[in-house]
Amino acid sequence: MPLLRKIPLSHGWHFKQSTTLNNSCASSSFLPVAGFPTVAHLDLLHHKLIPDPDLDSNEVDCLWVNDADWTYRTQNIEPVDIQPHERAVLVFEGLDTIVDVFLNDEHILYANNMNIEHQVDVTKLVRGRKEASTLELRFRNAPSYARKEWQRIGYKGTAAVDPYERIQPAGERCFVRKAQYHWGWDWGPALNTSGPWKPIYLQVYTSRITGFLVRQETESDLQTATVSMKGMIQGAPADGNTVTVTLVSPDGKPVFQSSVAVSSSQAFECAIPVHRPQLWYPFQYGTQPLYTVRASLPDHDLQETKIGLRRLRLLQHGLQGAEGKAFVFEVNNIRVFCGGSNWIPGDMLLPRFTRQRYEDWLLLAKGGNQSMIRVWGGGIVEDDFFYEICDREGLLVWQDFLFACGNYPGGNAPDFIQSVKVEAEALLRRVGHHPSLAIWAGNNEDYMYAELLGWEIDYSDEHGPWDATNFPAREIYERVLPEACRQFGGDVPYWRGSPYAGKSANDGIVGDAHVWQVWHMKMAPYRDYKKFTSRFASEFGIESAPDIRTLHRAVQDPKERHWQSRTLELHDKGEGHERRYGMYMSENFRFRMHPLKDFVYCTQFLQGEAISYAYNIWRREFRGPGREYCSGALVWQLNDIWPAVSWALVDVDGHRKPAFYATKRALASFAVGMERIITSKPNYMLRSMLPTKAKAEIWAVNGELEARGTKLELRGFDIGTGKELSLSLHGKRTSFTLPPNQSTELLTVDIPSPDTTVVVAYLRHDDASGGLLARWVSWPEPLKYVRFSAESSVDCRIEGEETVVLRSKTPLKGVVVSVPEEEGDNAVFDDNFVDLVPGEEVRIGVKGLAGRKLETRWLCDWETEPELQA
Ligand code: BMA
């Protein structure tokens, strides 16, 4: 009997606009698609029927596409020989979104959920057919469908003002199961795509395995794991009514093989014990061996899943001397400080997001010492590649279910709930086995919005039903999703939302927290990040410009290439960004926003400083067992989706911003941190004068699993002259054994003339090599009062092809080195945005320099321009 056949249907596709918008520009005849899978925007771009939405204000000129309807058709499906015992199934891996599907003019499918696969048995329509078949997909635009659904179901939330003054949570988008960012977000344009966004194929089989589900459980002693699997047989009964099950070790050796009986209901299951398993670890702690699990129906079908064995727990124990509970992920009995960032979808036009681009982004995050990436609920559950790469690289993934910042229907819309159930099962089945997957969260910020906008939420009512309240989606987060996770989620924990705190949405002492008191909400100073220390900060961030090259690409008209231009502001969608820049900068440092390169430097400086401060003080709070006051910090956001001014650490063209390097240093295996503390307050009658901070606390982090002998070296310099000052340590100990996997308080140092002194701390190996483990430079605060030397300059030397050496005679803050724009694209630096002190060489690895020269910027370098000194 023949094997299962998979016939890709990726040829002969054409598209056409089936509405009259924009003068019916794409409706007169079918045009060939740009590629397959696809969405209308990609095909229109290909035929030059829309301008590139990434550039200038073209987004506005493309808006009509969102409201148009689109037909996709292929007439080239060759006849398929289907034997009497065979079935033919059309598989649509993803349709975006509201669509009627016709095969040879017969209606075979109506679909309205972008997030799931659809299968249709078409045996009768294709068997025996001698001519080519035609498959036609008629898409209707999602916005108008969503508005009708809104009318039909009825919006329940209160129409209050969004306290973030940003996206309206009452939007139509909540009524359709389609990526929510397609309605535009505060970091991306509104491109509401339509089309067959994932592959379509025909599957012909006699017998096939469906619902193949593999899960694992590893015992606490890490000596035994159990791999469990189950599935169903469809079609003719299997030979001997058995399925062959195999487990192959990471090094390719079969460690288990057996024939498993298929039940009368055509189901099979099997549990395989694995002794002394090769365990999967996050990359900081070990390797990532992957086992292969196979189920086969010889001559018919073979299903294969790669799985990593690891013990995963989310610990929430009480804490010594603090309220609330820990929120710490433990992998193989190692408590992991999850430093990382949030992932937004990689592209507005998803079919063009390639595996290579996933690789580039995720390797970049790993290269930044990030241990966890959170896939945000307003996007998609990413392509399988994403999770495969995370498995291979040892990155942990926080995955939201696909609800964000909204009031979604609940028990009041049974058909919507049904679609959510199907979706949850499908997503859990598709990616739930990945060892990188550390948690499923019910939604992004919906509980937070409920509180902020005053929707009815009584946390003590755990039973519902909640459909009579104006927050009916609790049905989804508290019933549908946890139940789906219980059935299909294996050992991956479920958490109701991000953020969620049990008895509130975002209290900081239980669960995870989105720390938007800084930047959004009350726009608190970034030094208040310390006040908002939470058990696990799953979001916090500050906006900044991308690289100047990216900005120039976004804004093509030279006249518009300045801060506050209309075009540039269209590429900065963060509400109130201009007020926030002014406020945060003027509080902290002297700034200059013109010319555009100064806007780039100053906004990036702000972001780098703020993020660096938050990361360092929060990692300090990971103080060891029972004292994990903060166990995670995920910055909003890792990536960008278009050339934008946004919260991203890295711009859409892959240019790392200063904040990327600040997080990289803060998350290194070893870190040293300093914080200046108040030693005296000004006379009580005196206003507008800050307290004196003449001492600094110093701490260090050892992120490894062994204790480490270290030595602390401190030096002080006058900022204006660069003269070294002697620091008195009063005979304090400077050798420290740092316990593993936690922070340790080292000492407090007096700072002479604190308003004009920098102190640099070097953490070194306590051995003959004295090798540098970490470094930190402590500045007077706020930086706006600091006087740098009027002659400040950076000596930047290139050694060989791959090393940059930076030196300065006086202390300098925030030194950024880059290839000048006129020399082409930037090189890739191992480190950047560093502070310099006299007598020290900072050496930075670099790739892609190719003999080009470099330029440097630093804080207030513009003050060394002669006309400004006058
Ligand atoms: C967070 C996210 C997004 C948003 C970001 C920046 O809360 O969940 O909704 O893009 O803030 O405002």
From TrEMBL:
Main location class: secreted
Residue ranges of domain Beta-mannosidase-like galactose-binding in the record: 13-198
InterPro entries on file: Beta-gal/glucu_dom_sf, Beta-mannosidase-like_N2, Beta-mannosidase_GH2, Beta-mannosidase_Ig, Galactose-bd-like_sf, GH, Ig-like_fold, Ig-like_GH2
Domain Glycoside hydrolase family 2 immunoglobulin-like beta-sandwich: 208-310
Domain Beta-mannosidase Ig-fold: 800-848
Pfam families found in the cross-reference section: Glyco_hydro_2, Glyco_hydro_2_N2, Ig_mannosidase, Mannosidase_ig
DNA-binding in keyword set: no
Pathway(s) the chain acts in: Glycan metabolism; N-glycan degradation
Keyword Glycoprotein: yes
Protein family: Belongs to the glycosyl hydrolase 2 family. Beta-mannosidase B subfamily.
GO cellular component entries: extracellular region
EC number: 3.2.1.25
Span of domain Mannosidase Ig/CBM-like: 695-785
Assembly with partners or alone: Homodimer.
Reaction(s) this enzyme catalyzes, per UniProt: Hydrolysis of terminal, non-reducing beta-D-mannose residues in beta-D-mannosides
Subcellular location: Secreted
A biological process term (GO) from this entry: glycoprotein catabolic process
Xref: PANTHER family: BETA-MANNOSIDASE (PTHR43730:SF1)
Alphabetized GO MF terms: beta-mannosidase activity
Record's keyword terms, sorted: Carbohydrate metabolism, Glycoprotein, Glycosidase, Hydrolase, Polysaccharide degradation, Secreted
Name under which the protein is recorded: Beta-mannosidase B
